[in-house]
Automatic annotation (TrEMBL):
SUPFAM superfamilies: Ubiquitin-like. Residues 1-80 form the DIX domain. Keywords: Wnt signaling pathway. The keyword Amino-acid biosynthesis does not apply. The gene is 20197334. This is DIX domain-containing protein. It comes from the Eukaryota. GO terms for biological process: negative regulation of canonical Wnt signaling pathway; Wnt signaling pathway. The keyword Cytoplasm does not apply.
Length: 80
């Protein structure tokens, strides 16, 4: 089974958490089930973008079927 490495931050915590999800293209729903957190949370993921000078953005995902974007072969997320 292929896995994807996921690094994620909670709020302003400077140290990321690391886990793996059992899929080459994990979804927001898989990520949320792994966290097992409830409440009014927002999920942002780092992705390449040419829209701004930085070359990267944090995109908010809301649909459990959305595929998590990869950044250099990994998922980098932020939960607020």
């Amino acid at each position: 089974c292929e896995v994807t490495v996921v690094g994620y931050y909670f709020g302003d915590d400077p140290i990321p958490y690391r886990t793996t999800l059992p899929s080459y293209q994990p979804t927001l729903g898989q990520f949320k089930r792994h966290l097992n957190k409830k409440g009014n949370l927002k999920y942002f993921f780092k992705k390449e973008s040419d829209e701004f000078d930085s070359g990267v953005v944090h995109e908010e995902l809301t649909d459990d079927d959305d595929l998590l974007p990869l950044w250099k072969g990994k998922v980098i997320g932020k939960v607020e």
